[in-house]
Amino acid sequence: LAAMATFDVYLNSKPTSNVTISIASSNTSEGTVSTSLLTFTPANWNTPQTVTITG
Q: Where are the domains of the chain?
């Protein structure tokens, strides 16, 4: 059975333009991520985006 962990990501302050965060596993045999990119805008900067790690 694979273990799973989730965490929420959001910015501490409102950006003036879009902010893109790249997410990757350094060892995919240990764990994989549910998304490879998170994009925050001035409209959604403080809305948490969930990342799930499975492995």
A: 4-54
CB 15 within 8 A of CB 45: yes
| pTM (global) more than 0.70 | yes
The arithmetic mean of pLDDT across residues 3-19, rounded, is 98
Asked if 15 contacts 27 with a C-beta cutoff of 8 angstroms, the reply is no
Q: What are the backbone angles phi and psi of residue 52, rounded to the nearest 5°?
A: -115, 130
Distance in angstroms (rounded) separating the CA atoms of residues 2 and 28? 13
DSSP 3-14: -EEEEEE--SS-
